[in-house]
Structure formats: C-alpha cells, structure tokens
What we know:
Layout lengths: L3 E2 L7 E3 L21 E2 L1 H15 L4 E6 L4 H10 L20 E7 L29 H16 L2 E4 L2 E7 L20
Parallel strand pairs: 2-4
Antiparallel strand pairs: 1-3, 4-5, 5-7, 6-7
Helix pairs in contact: 1-3
EC number: 3.4.13.22
GO molecular function: D-Ala-D-Ala dipeptidase activity; metallopeptidase activity; zinc ion binding
Function: Catalyzes hydrolysis of the D-alanyl-D-alanine dipeptide.
Amino acid sequence: xxxxxxxxxxxxxxxxxxxxxxxxxxxxxxxxxxxxxxxxxxxxxxxxxxxxxxxxxxxxxxxxxxxxxxxxxxxxxxxxxxxxxxxxxxxxxxxxxxxxxxxxxxxxxxxxxxxxxxxxxxxxxxxxxxxxxxxxxxxxxxxxxxxxxxxxxxxxxxxxxxxxxxxxxxxxxxxxxxxxxxxxx
Length: 185
C-alpha cells in the first residue's frame, strides 16, 4: 500500500503532528518522524478541501493523518474510551490511512480559528452540533464541517477535528513497517 506524504509544495497545509511531540494524551512522543501521510484517495480529498478553504482565505493545520496500528495501541492504553479512541482490536480509520485530524487557520502563518476546545479534548464540548458554545465557535466548526464534507469527507460526531473517507472499512489496517516511510521506527 502506498501512502502519500502530505507536505508543501503539493499540499498547502501546516503540519503539527501532536503524536510526534509529548503534547498528547500519552505525555510522550509516539512518532519519531513528524510526517503526515494519507492513502492516495484521502490525499485527493484533502487537496479538494485545501482548494475550497483557500477560496475563503483559510488553510488547514494537520494534527494527525495515517497512524500505525502500533500507535493506536499506545493511545488506547493511555485512554481506553471508544467514544474518542478507536479500539485497536477493531482498528482505527487513521490506521487505514483514510482519516485526518485538523483545524482551520487564518491564512499563511495565521492563528487557529477558535473551535471551543483543543484537539484531543475528550469532553462532550468537542462534539459536533453543540449549541452551548459561542456563535463564533459554532460558525467555525460549521465552516470546517462544510469544507470537509464538500470535499468528500465523512465526519465523527464526537470530535470536531476528525474526518474520514466514506466506507473506511474497505481499506486495510497498516502497521508501521508497511508504510513507505515508517513513523515509529
């Protein structure tokens, strides 16, 4: 299986992989390489979303993309809650290379739009469709949702930052050694 690196100049996004740093739920880096990778179909859908966002003067900051099965196990061991972390025995859509975690930023080098919670905030406030958040936060989440769904992505109702291709189970789970450029080795 080929994974596509998500990087400039082909992809006009900011890469900020949370799991390549200690700023994640495990408190330690999971990835040794800070390279976002996606299945070719997911990369095409992300490119469509990038073009749609650019028309609004917006860009994406990517927190995670392909996530090896081994990394999914580390997340599950740190926070075994299936509402927010896919049980690795069932498999994560990230481990298939067809899911991406991201937010919107205001143009090149700009600040992130306020989404009401940080990435990987495992509280109900992170769910889509919250009406108890400010109008600006609701609007920002709606813009993100609109851009991603217009580009062909499905969404996760529990996490405003998570998007995946439709029918993700049609794609195999990938271990780190199967990636063209392993993230954990």
